[in-house]
Design brief:
There is one protein chain. This protein is α/β, with parallel strands linked by helices and 287 residues long. It folds into two domains: 136 residues, 3-Layer(aba) Sandwich (Rossmann fold), CATH 3.40.50; 138 residues, Dihydrodipicolinate Reductase, domain 2 (2-Layer Sandwich), CATH 3.30.360.10. It has ten helices and eleven strands. Strands 3-2-1-4-5-6 form a six-stranded parallel sheet, sandwiched between helices. Strands 8-7-9-11-10 form a five-stranded mixed sheet. Helix 6 runs antiparallel to helix 9. The two termini are 13 Å apart.
Length: 287
């Protein structure tokens, strides 16, 4: 089967897990892994026969066969890389909170972005909570949505820790622009518990049209859609209505491709990114 060549910038935990997910996809083909030092991720990619570079993105820009590029570095790095990738005709799938392109949560708005060249994957917390916020809003009209994303300290790498401010700002904005809330707020907690906890996300909404049955039906529908690309995504506590306040709790178990299964935070954003790449590949390059 014909595939579309892709590259990954950033050979850390996210980039390495992405590589494993690309390997088992029937649409993207892993072509290049780029970094700036001879890291474990670079060595690992090379051992799998993937071309590597420690000279940044220049070799990727020069390779005309590479059509899609995953950015798995930092918000600051993508702000610098984005215009260069665009000028080189590459489609960027951004896993940082740089917010260069439009926010993308596959089950919410991917079908509406057929002409974009830069896809911003929001944040791990955004991928986990925006769908629930969206489902609550379409059923009950949300005035305010607040999420608390709790992840294991062990699944928070350097990139996550360096982007805490961007995480909260970007996720809150996505709760408004995609989730439909008039006002959004995001909080992240790094939990050092042993054994490590699964990613857990609590979603609170204040709604104008409280209807518990309608809210539960809407949430269950969106969960079925997410589980098509994140099988470990599940309701821990179904939506509970108290007056005009809705509370729901989501748990995310990772697939265990490269990272431990408790790293659902990294797994969900990577799985969403692969979902985007597969759709782009099918619709733009494999017709």
């Amino acid at each position: 089967m014909k595939k579309v060549k892709v590259a990954i910038i950033g050979p850390g935990n996210i980039g390495s897990d992405l590589m494993y997910k690309v390997f088992r996809s029937d649409t993207p083909e892993m072509s290049y892994m780029a970094g700036i030092v001879e890291s474990e991720g670079i060595i690992r990619a090379r051992q799998f026969g993937v071309k590597t570079s420690i000279e940044g993105i220049d070799p990727i820009l020069e390779d005309n066969e590479i059509k899609i590029v995953f950015e798995a570095t930092s918000a600051k790095a993508h702000l610098a890389n984005a215009p260069r990738l665009k000028a080189a005709g590459k489609i960027a799938i951004d896993l940082t909170p740089a917010a260069v392109g439009p926010y993308v949560v596959p089950c919410v708005n991917l079908d509406k972005l057929s002409e974009e060249v830069n896809f911003n994957m929001v944040t791990c917390g955004g991928q986990a909570t925006v769908p629930i916020a969206y489902a609550i809003n379409r059923a009950a009209d949300s005035e305010y949505t607040e999420i608390v994303s709790c992840i294991s300290s062990k699944s928070a790498g350097q990139g996550t820790r360096a982007n805490i401010d961007e995480f909260t700002e970007t996720t809150a904005k996505a709760l408004e622009t995609l989730g439909g809330a008039d006002k959004g707020k995001a909080i992240i907690i790094l939990n050092p518990a042993e054994p490590p906890i699964m990613m857990t996300n609590t979603i609170y909404s204040i709604v104008r049209r409280p209807d518990e049955n309608a809210i539960r039906e809407s949430v269950c529908q969106i969960i079925e859609q997410i589980q098509k690309y994140v099988p470990g995504y599940r309701l821990r506590t179904p939506p509970i209505l108290d007056g005009n306040k809705v509370t729901a709790i989501i748990e995310v178990e990772g697939a265990g491709d490269f990272l431990p299964k408790y790293s659902g935070n990294l797994d969900i954003i990577n799985s969403a990114a692969i979902e985007v790449a597969e759709k782009i590949a099918r619709e733009r390059f494999l017709k």
